[in-house]
């Protein structure tokens, strides 16, 4: 399969992100690690050269890079690839396939990005999806954890966790049922 989704040539001497880091201090005096000026300059040059597609590529893809270094020094290929992929994500060519990382780094601000509309809205959406999946699986007769997992494209443990968190369902081995309104157990 040789489907080319996107192609570009980025001119400039490649810089890695990790080998050129610098330690700076924020306003409160707390140290933090930031990319070097060389990498930021390289990133800026690359961003100007990249023509962004209409929509970011959101599936897992094979990124092929050829690096031509200005001198014959040895460089860390993994760090060069990571820098290139980060630049492609920043340019909007690739969608970040690891969305949890910014949320962990940004704390509360990242959590807001992770759960648009807040946690309550996300939980409500999850309950609606679970209810719709239960109704769809109910058409086959008995509802099982594995049928729900297959329908929602999730692992069975995740389904169990969501069913328990919802509180409106009972679990008996593999069987799942809806609790009647007003019942305690």
Outline:
It contains 7 helices and 5 strands. With 185 residues, the protein is mainly alpha-helical.
What are its keywords?
185 residues; mainly alpha; Arc Repressor Mutant, subunit A; three-stranded antiparallel β-sheet; two-stranded antiparallel ribbon; 7 helices; 5 strands; 44% helix
Q: Overall mean pLDDT score?
A: 81
Number of DSSP helical runs:
7
Oligomeric form: single chain
Largest beta-sheet details: 3 strands, antiparallel
- Widest β-sheet, arrangement of strands: 3-5-4
Number of strands: 5
Strand and helix order: EEHHHHHEHHEE
Task: Furnish the topology, listing elements before pairings.
Elements: E1 22-25, E2 31-34, H1 37-49, H2 77-91, H3 100-106, H4 108-114, H5 118-138, E3 143-144, H6 145-152, H7 156-166, E4 169-172, E5 175-178
Antiparallel strand pairs: 1-2, 3-5, 4-5
Helix pairs in contact: 3-4, 5-6, 6-7
What would you note in describing this structure?
The protein has two domains: 22-97, no CATH class; 118-178, Arc Repressor Mutant, subunit A (Orthogonal Bundle), CATH 1.10.10. The protein has a three-stranded antiparallel beta sheet with strand order 3-5-4. The chain is mainly alpha-helical and 185 residues long. The chain is built from seven helices and five strands.
């Amino acid at each position: 399969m040789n489907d080319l989704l996107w192609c570009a040539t980025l001119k400039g001497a490649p810089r890695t992100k990790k080998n050129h880091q610098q330690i700076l201090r924020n306003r409160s005096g707390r140290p933090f690690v930031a990319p070097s000026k060389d990498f930021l300059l390289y990133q800026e040059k690359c961003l100007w050269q990249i023509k962004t597609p209409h929509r970011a590529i959101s599936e897992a893809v094979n990124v092929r890079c050829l690096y031509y270094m200005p001198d014959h020094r040895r460089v860390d290929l993994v760090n060069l690839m990571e820098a290139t992929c980060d630049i492609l994500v920043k340019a909007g060519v690739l969608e970040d396939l690891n969305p949890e990382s910014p949320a962990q780094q940004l704390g509360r601000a990242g959590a807001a990005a992770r759960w648009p509309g807040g946690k309550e809205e996300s939980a409500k959406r999850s309950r609606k999806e679970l209810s719709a999946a239960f109704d769809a699986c109910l058409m086959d007769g008995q509802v099982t954890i594995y049928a729900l997992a297959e329908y929602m494209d999730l692992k069975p443990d995740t389904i169990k966790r969501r069913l328990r968190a919802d509180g409106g369902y009972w679990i008996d081995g593999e069987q799942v049922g809806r609790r009647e309104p007003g019942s305690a157990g």
